[in-house]
Amino acid sequence: MPEPFEKPITPETAPQQMPDKDRQEGGAEVEKELEKLESEINRQEKSIHSVTASLPIKQMTPTKPQVVKSATRKQIEGILSEDLKELFQGMDAAHKAEFKRQASETASALEILIASAKATARKVVKLISTWLKLIPGINEFFLEQEAKIKTDKLMELVKKK
């Protein structure tokens, strides 16, 4: 591999510049070439615009990636959603979105606990209670009762695993 800069650049080895007269004559030819290229580019842009204008416009909507849920995850979500349909429908849109997001996170955390065999009733109750507290105006006794019922069902699931 040759070493870079083997020979230093000196005025004798540097490329010579064109004299002004040659530069002016060559400049006219370059200008003509540039004009030809610009007109060709404009022509192609017009043809592209005419083709794309005739294409139907399809609105692109972002899609959520499809998450494949395990059987355990589906069972957990089924247990969590039991007896809450009416409460969920009574919420406003902002609460619904937050409740749904938190439900997904809770189900994910419960699935991890169950899979790692570290699910204890105390951890499960805490996760479910935290999630249920998002329901606006919920009665504390109802919350405790629902958390206990759901915990019992989830602990049965843990025993089966």
Can you put this structure into words, describing what you see?
By secondary structure, the chain is mainly alpha-helical. The chain folds into two domains: 19-49; 71-160, PWI domain. Helix content is 66%, strand content 0%. The chain contains six helices and no strands. It has helices spanning 20-54, 71-81, 85-89, 93-115, 121-132, 140-160. Helix 2 (71-81) crosses helix 4 and helix 5 (121-132) crosses helix 6. The protein is elongated. The two termini are 65 Å apart.
| Spatial separation of the terminal alpha carbons | 65 Å
* Helix proportion range: 55-70%
The major sheet is characterized as: none
Please write the string of helix (H) and strand (E) elements: HHHHHH
Summed up, the domain count is 2
Average pLDDT figure: 79
* Structural Rg: 36 Å
Tell me the layout of helices and strands:
Blueprint: H1 20-54, H2 71-81, H3 85-89, H4 93-115, H5 121-132, H6 140-160
Summed up, what is this model?
The chain is an all-alpha fold.
Features of the shown structure:
161 residues; mainly alpha; PWI domain; 2 domains; 6 helices; elongated
